[in-house]
Amino acid sequence: MTDPGLEMELGGSREGGGSGDLFSKFDPLIEQRRALLAKGVTDPFNLVMERVESPAVAICNGRRTILLGTYNYMGMTFDPDVVAAGKKALDEFGSGTTGSRVLNGTYVGHREVEQALRDFYAMDHAMVFSTGYQANLGIISTIAGKDDYIILDIDSHASIYDGCALGNAQVIPFRHNDVDALEKRLRRVPEGAGKLVILEGVYSMLGDVAPLREMVAVSKAAGAMVLVDEAHSMGFIGPNGRGVAEDQGVIDDVDFIIGTFSKSVGTVGGFCVSNHPKFEIMRLVCRPYVFTASLPPSVVATAATSIRKLTGSSAKRAHLWENSKRLHAGLKQLGFTLGTDQPQSAIIAVIMPDLETGAAMWEALLKEGLYVNLARPPATPSGMTLLRCSLCAEHSEEQVGEILGMFAAAGRSTGCI
Ligand SMILES: Cc1ncc(COP(=O)(O)O)c(C=O)c1O
Q: What pTM, to 2 d.p., does this model score?
């Protein structure tokens, strides 16, 4: 056992023994991980990218590896204009702001990226956070407090649940993507109470899309405000890449759209856009916005450049759809069980029978030269283990062919197909 993480964990559990050690609650997870790694499996949660050659290819364990497990949907991380904007801002404004947006941390670049977002979404207000996680944490906890009700899809992202907990709102989950269940839960909310419905455009584990048209209609009819997290659809879905709400024609009825720079935009950061006339007050009352340092100038410069380029990226969007369809059809043909019957987004989830088989398949793919995400509970719904494939607009048609060949070989060697 040479894995340092594992040794630390074993050390931790040896010291514990239940005598007041706050780490003892992690013992079942430590044991599960120990048992898995004891079989000689490479740790799926400890991979190092030794060099990154492009949005689609990196060097891992000394070998060329096709990346099929990033959120780099639109492949913007190596865009020459994006990289040049970051370098210029680094030279002109330095490496960081060392301050909050409400003190010394608002540079022209922060204003510019918020303007780029207002233009991209054609909305009145845009507020940038240091991550998408903080955007959900901040917006949800600030607008929905103790006496308000949040009705959310049970498969919502952790940052949504954490935002609900921080604001101490009453949380009512409903069955994933079930319009009737949403309607029933809305009827349960006491008369006159504040109501916020939280939905996602694309759900990141299975890559399925929400029926936003129906859900937004039902929510509005019940007098609720609606927040949609478009983290996995921005840039790709919708005629202008504004996401699923745009694609399904309901963007004007959505009160708040949450997004991130860590996926299609290709850097780091989060945001909320809205047409609410009082939205700007959020800059003073939203604690995860006020009590943290703002994004570095190079990051906001890369984000602004990337967002402006995403507006006109229809050809890239079309290519990404073609790749998603090709991969989905190919994997299905090979006999894998997929998260959706049809491709609905750039995420294609391959369902594994259990964690052990999933880890073996993940490792076999890596040896073939392919990186995918291994996802398992509690991040996944219904206790599933998944190999999550996320395509990028920079994958070529040939690379999709190569990927299918690797799935065929790894699937056969592990007995998955
Ligand atoms: C639906 C959803 N919302 C928010 C986030 C958080 O984004 P960020 O990486 O910017 O913190 C994620 C990240 O995976 C996500 O999947």
A: 0.94
